[in-house]
Design brief:
Layout (H helix, E strand, L loop, with lengths): L9 H10 L3 E7 L9 H8 L5 E7 L5 H6 L6 E6 L10 H11 L6 E4 L4 E2 L5 H11 L7 E10 L1 E6 L7 E7 L4 E2 L7 E5 L2 E3 L2 E14 L3 H13 L19 E3 L9 H7 L14 H16 L9 E2 L5
Parallel strand pairs: 1-2, 1-4, 2-3, 6-12, 12-14
Antiparallel strand pairs: 4-8, 5-12, 6-7, 6-8, 7-13, 9-10, 10-11
């Protein structure tokens, strides 16, 4: 029919739109090799899910850019950036770099995965199906993931409320949002009013390996991070200075893409300091965990508002 802008019957239009749903992935990285990030594994875990992956790569003194370019995937788009070295206010330089990548995404959804975070290959179909399910539910602005925070060894998890147990990692790319922090998103309802996004649960975890990298790499990472927070870094000699009640055993399987990195670059022996005294913050977390076990609460920090129904 001449002039008909919507030739598909209504029952089929939704399926047609789902078929062409576009998912963007994005991240930023600098000195990924020097600081011991599994950033290549992270990107390779994200690529099968996405139609494009945007990476803001900061100019540095290692081979991070060269290694990313060597992935040679047409879905990968690299943006070379220069970091603002004078920005030392609460790590905001990380938010700046995150937004450079985020604002270059063109998909319906934008998936943020940090350089030490990895998706499990078994979860890709579930993530894609969940995003398709919520594509036409505008009240769902983000997708929230559970977290496995590995600590000291690939077989140990950090589980206290001091470690965020869930975080929004996918944001709807058609709403006014920005990232004042590397960890979360803010949605702007009005020019001067921001809030956390309304979100659904993904039902699958993200695997976070930042705290199993070699001790020397963690020491270098702490030195770099501290300069952007404007403070002197705390001493770090090993992973053993932690409250043992904040730890648990990991009983699952790691993503296949991580096998070589875990074998070659991760720490494998966690020796807890028997003389370590839990900090005031850790003692507070002990009480929170007791309340969680007693009442079934979940008391870690949440940077989202969960939407329970999408009807």
């Amino acid at each position: 029919m001449v002039g008909n802008k919507n030739p598909l019957p209504a029952p089929y239009k939704k399926d047609w739109d789902n078929l062409f749903m576009k998912i963007s992935g994005f991240t930023f990285i600098r000195h990924g090799t020097l600081l011991g990030y599994p950033y290549i594994e992270s990107l390779r875990s994200l690529l099968p899910l996405c139609d494009e992956v945007v990476v803001a790569v900061g100019a540095g003194q290692d081979d991070t850019l060269t290694r990313i370019q060597a992935i040679d995937d047409p879905k990968l788009r690299v943006i070379e950036t220069t970091w603002n070295e004078s920005m030392q206010d609460r790590g905001y330089v990380y938010a700046q770099q995150k937004m450079i990548a985020q604002f270059n995404c063109s998909g319906d959804w934008a998936f943020y995965l940090e350089g030490d975070e990895v998706l499990h290959e078994q979860d890709i179909p579930t993530i894609k199906a969940t995003l398709q399910q919520h594509l036409h539910h505008p009240k769902i602005e983000a997708l929230v993931f559970d977290y496995y925070h590995f600590y000291g060894t690939p077989n140990t998890l950090a589980i206290s409320p001091g470690w965020y147990r869930r975080a929004p990692r996918v944001i709807r790319n058609s709403i006014r949002s920005y990232s004042p922090d590397g960890l979360f998103f803010v949605v702007m309802d009005k020019n001067k009013t921001g809030r956390y996004p309304k979100a659904a649960l993904a039902g699958v975890p993200i695997y976070h390996y930042g705290h199993v990298r070699a001790v020397s790499s963690m020491q270098a990472k702490i030195q770099q991070v501290s300069q952007y927070w404007g403070h002197t870094p705390p001493p770090f000699e090993a992973y053993g200075n932690i409250d043992p009640q904040a730890l648990d055993q990991f009983k699952g399987t790691h993503p296949a893409i991580m096998q070589n990195w875990l074998a070659e670059q991760a720490e494998h022996h966690l020796i807890l300091n028997p003389h370590y005294q839990p900090t005031r913050r850790e003692r507070r977390h002990r009480w929170m965990m007791r309340l969680e076990r007693l009442f079934g609460w979940e008391m870690s920090k949440k940077h989202y508002k969960q939407v329970k129904k999408t009807s």
